[in-house]
Design brief:
The chain is an alpha/beta fold and 158 residues long. It contains 6 helices and 5 strands, in the order H-E-H-E-H-H-H-E-E-E-H. 44% of the residues lie in helices and 22% in strands. Helix 1 runs parallel beside helix 6.
């Protein structure tokens, strides 16, 4: 089963909702979520925050956090997830920031920092792959959705 269908199953009748903040995935997470019929019942929306100014001004990521840790960091991914959850009022949120192409002094190409947030807390992870720009974006999105699904299961199943 594709991960977006698993998330639909987890959220559809629960009353829980979802939002996304995407940088390096450029809307791919939102695309996958909205490919599922009925996703409007639980998916509130997303912010594609490619520019630092959008991360700061729309998602309320502190500029000092970006300066201290870099835009590609678990700290910024967490802040993005928390920001979009606050903006939309969703139960759960997922965020990505990374390097689909071209590395930097800290991370190689194919690195994404993922954040998930809910009332149960915020968690982050770093994921690496090497599939070229398009392949990396696809893998980043599915890795983020897998991490989100695990967060939902951990905090909603007894």
């Amino acid at each position: 089963m594709q991960i977006q269908y698993k998330i639909a199953q987890l959220l559809k009748d629960s009353g829980y909702t979802l939002s996304a903040a995407e940088s390096c995935t450029g809307g791919q997470i939102s695309h996958l979520i909205t490919m599922v019929s009925g996703s409007s019942e639980y998916f509130l929306g997303s912010v594609t925050s490619y520019a630092i100014s959008v991360k700061e001004n729309v998602l309320s990521v502190p500029g000092e956090l970006i300066k201290e840790h870099g835009v590609v960091s678990t700290e910024v991914a967490a802040a993005m997830a928390e920001g979009v959850r606050a903006l939309t009022g969703s139960t759960f949120s997922v965020a990505t920031t990374g390097l689909a192409e071209g590395g930097d002094e800290r991370f190689p190409e194919g690195t994404v920092c993922i954040g998930v947030s809910s009332k149960w807390g915020t968690e982050t992870m770093i994921f690496h792959c090497d599939n070229g720009r398009t392949g990396n974006i696809r893998r980043f999105a599915t890795a983020a959705l897998g991490f989100l699904a695990n967060h939902i299961i951990k905090h909603t199943r007894h």
